[in-house]
Structures are given as C-alpha cells and as structure tokens.
Amino acid sequence: MTNRLGAALLVSAFVVATCGLIYELLAGTLASYLLGDSVTQFSIVIGTYLFAMGIGSWCSRYVRDNELAVFVRVEILIAAIGGASAAVLFLLFDRVADFRIPLYGLVLVIGALVGLEIPLLMRILKDRLEFGDLVSKVLTFDYVGALAASLLFPLLLVPHLGLMRTGFLFGLANVGIAIVLILMLPDKRRLRTELAAAILVALALAAGFIGSERLQRAAEVAAYGEPILYAASTPYQRVVLTKRGADLRLYLNGNLQFSSRDEYRYHEALVHPVMSRSNSPRDVLVLGGGDGLAVREILKYPSIRSVTLVDLDPEMTTLFTHSEMLASLNNHAFRSPKVHVINADAFRWLRANTRRFDAVLVDFPDPTNFSVGKLYTVSFYKELTRALAPGAVISVQSTSPLVAPRAYWTVAATLEAAGLITRGYHVYVPSFGEWGFVLASNRPIGPAGPLPAGLRFLTPQTDRLAFVFPPDMARRAVPVNRLDNQALVREFEAEWSVYEG
Predict the structure, then answer these.
(1) Catalytic annotation present for 65
(2) CB within 10 Å: which end of the chain, N or C, has fewer?
(3) Helix (H), strand (E) at residue 474
(4) Looking at the predicted structure, is the pLDDT value of residue 343 above 60?
(5) CA angle 431, 99, 104 (to 5 degrees)
(6) Nearest 5 degrees, angle CA 279-CA 284-CA 287?
C-alpha cells in the first residue's frame, strides 16, 4: 500500500465522519420541521443512528476479504442514499401514510453503512500502522470530521444551501472519495464496475444539486395543493407564497401564517383590542409580524408617533416592503416614516432595549419548537414588562383555545407568572378556525375605547363577545412555561397532533 493511498484512506475517515453526521443532522432537522417537537425528533434520530452504527460495526466481522473493495462499495451506497435522503424525505412527506417509517428507515440504513465503514478502514490500515498509531489517527480524523460537520451545518450549509442541496453536496463528497480510492489502486481494473457505479451516482447527485430548487417546489406543490407564487429559503425559515384566484397565502416552514381572504379578521382582533384599551397610544412595539399587516392596523390611530417592529428575518420584511403585490396588502406600512424595522432576535433585543411603549403586540409563530417556545416563557415576558410605559397593554397571539385549550391557557398562566394581569379572548378566522389572544397589563384591563372607522370585522359588540368563553374553551389548570421546561411546546404538540390526526 503506497503512502499516498494510506493518506487518502485517513482523509476518507474525515469525510466519512463529516458526511455521516451531516446526514444525521439533515434527518433530525427535517423531522423537527415536518413533525414538530425538535427535542423528541432529534433524540429519536440520534438514538436510532447510533444504534444502527453499532449494527454496522458488528456486521463488519463478516467481511472476510477484499476489505478495500467492500469499503468502496459502501462509500458509493452511502453517497447515493445519504446524498438523496433530504430530497426523498421531502417528496415522501405528503405521499405516505406514516412519514416516520421512511424517515427512521433511512436513518437506520445510513447509520448501519457508516458503522460498517470505520472497522473496515481500520482493518485496511492495520498492516501499515502500529495499533496505537492506527487507532489514534483514525479516531482523530473521525472526531475532527464530526466537529467540522457540527459547525458547518448550522452556520453555513443550512442558511446558504438549504437541506436538499446540503445532502447532495455531501453525497458528492462521499462518492468523490470512492472514485479517488479506485483510481489510486494499482489493480483498479478489478473495480471497473464500482467505478462506473460511482460515476453514475456522482452525475445523479450533481443533477440533484443543480435541480434541488425544482425538487423543493415539486414537494411543496404536492404539500400545499396550491400554485406556488414564491418560495425561498432564508437563514431562518422556508418562505412560501401561494396564490389561487384572489387568495394569497403565506407559509413559514410549512405552517400557514395568513390567507388574504380573511387575514383582516386575525389582524383586527390582534391589534384593536389592545390599541383601544391604551390611552391615546403614541409609541407602539410589534414583536414578529414581519408581513406588516399588524402595522397596517396600528397606523389607523392618529395618535401614533412611532411603531417599532422587531422581526428576526430581514428577507421577510424586505419582501413585504418592496414587492408591490405584498406591500399593497399591508397598505405600504413599512414605507411610513413612523415605522422603524429592526431585524434582530426579539429576546436579545428586549434585553438591550431601554425604551418604553404604550402598547405592545406579540405576533410570533405558534410554539412548534423550543426556539420559538422561548419567546413564550416567563423569562421573556419579564423582559417585556421592562418595556411597558405606565398603563401599557400587551396583546399576544396564543393559538386556538378550542383545538389546544391547555396550550392557550398556558400562555395566560405564563404572563401572570411574570406579574401581569391578563384577559383572554377569541375570534373566528376561517383559515385557522377559532383563534385565541391574550391581553396583559400591569393594571386591570378595562373595556375598549373608540375603534377606528372602516373596520371590516371588529365592532364594540364583537369585541365584548370575544371575551366570553364557552365551557369547551374555559380556563383549566395548566403549567407555567419556563425556559427550563418548555411545557408550552409539549402541550401544543400533544393537542394539535390529536386534532390533525
């Protein structure tokens, strides 16, 4: 075995570890995106993957000869299966009865193949290196590869390539190692079939990498069942706009955010109960709401001096500022000189904020994962209380009190644990069903004041009725959502999973 081939095999340990962990991270991220509850999904994926690696390592004992040829074949298989895994899972999501079967099946297969590789590699190198040197070098390359994958995946790959392209790229890395090893062998003619297979896999993965946006759209067309007008992956989320007839819909990570046919019901209910209970509000804070639709409603009050909107994703606020079709929905709210957009993490921004506001609207996505769930915790609401001017009122979108009553009342209980007085209310929005909000303040919350003219849904009568809860939505005993328990995410997932079947 030449020095060059030995070096190539050690480099392959780095590639094996990097690619293997990337495939594991892809499966865990996809599972959390599509199934929710990121802690559960990552725990199951990691456990399944490690178990499968153990099976693969155990099976390596049955490879008696031609270890290098077997190693090359396994590398090609991993490249084909792992490289295409993200695309396959996206395309299967709405086409199979139980998505968990192909998800965990792929994790098992990839994990077993990766587990088979390292023992084979060590056996191939055993005649060249002393045992101690062999183990230390192989494991060093293996662990360094794992570190590279864990850093690259969240910081560079997902934000800039997305999940599908990342899978195809690392599949190409796997198959590239196989091709290099074959070409370095003195008797490479014995592996002509493997070389041909590797080249075909490389071509297929390259085509997938180039066409991944089309594959993503094909998966989304099947999932949404509506013509897709716009789709893009930002560093923070997948943004999809669909349009059928006059109905324009926004989805973030597959979750509906609004339908243009009835969004006015949601946004009038979010904004006007809090604004009409604030005394001539001048300075208003909006957390989330990057579509500008809540800001549109706030600007209907002549007392407004400034509106500060804090939204994590600059691509969202840019899209709803410069796209004429979308800006017309929010009545060009982001172009108003009264509106100041800040793209930042709301939790960090609040900790650094020193301003006080007369009214606050909290319009975050539903707490489907722990990264969003932290924005519904006691810690977050305590930071929020520091931003309240005397007599200020907060409005928080709080999911459906009919579908998820425990999750809904957990939001109210958490606001109260932060020292606030609350009043819950709900309205019917056809796209969402019965939807809930919570008002909160440092003082008792009274009746609504005058409403702006021209509202399409909210009236003094509908405002009063919104605060009446029938028995199936009535308050119940629930936990407080804290950073160290994230009870709300678990309640939300449990209740919505039953509703969605």
Answers:
(1) no
(2) C
(3) none
(4) yes
(5) 145
(6) 135
3-state secondary structure of 426: strand
**Placement of tokens 């020193």 in the chain:** 354
Give dist(CA 194, CA 68) in Å, integer. Answer: 12
Which residues lie below 8 Å from residue 491, measured CB to CB, with a gap of 6+?
404, 406, 407, 410, 478, 479
* Sign of the alpha-carbon torsion through 431, 493, 484, 151: negative
SS3 sequence of 171-220: HHHHHHHHHHHHHHCCCHHHHHHHHHHHHHHHHHHHHHHHCHHHHHHHHH
Q: How is 138-183 classified by DSSP, letter by letter?
A: HHHHHHHHHHHHHHHIIIIIHHHHHHHHHHHHHHHHHHHHHHHHHH
Q: How many CB atoms lie within 10 A of CB 482?
A: 15
**Catalytic one of 37, 363, 366, 463:** 363
Q: Which amino acid is at 138?
A: V
pTM: 0.76
- For residue 424, count other CB atoms closer than 10 A to its CB: 22
Asked whether the beta carbons of 445 and 423 are under 8 A apart, the reply is yes
> Hey, which residues does 438 pair with through a beta bridge?
396, 424
Residue 1: pLDDT over 60: no
Alpha-carbon span 7 to 353, nearest angstrom = 54
DSSP, res 365: P
* Best CA proximity match to 339, nearest among 368, 299, 290: 299
Q: Within a 13 Å sphere around the CA of 124, how many CA atoms are in the beta-carbon half?
A: 27
What is the helix (H) or strand (E) element at residue 22, kind and residue range? helix 3-35
The span from the CA of 448 to the CA of 459, in Å, is 10
Across 232-264, b (16+ Cβ under 10 Å) vs e yields: ebbebbbbbbbeeeeebbbbbbeeebbbbebbb
Please state which of the ranges 189-193, 221-225, 302-306, 426-430 shows the lowest mean pLDDT: 221-225
The share of the chain scoring above pLDDT 90, in percent, equals 60
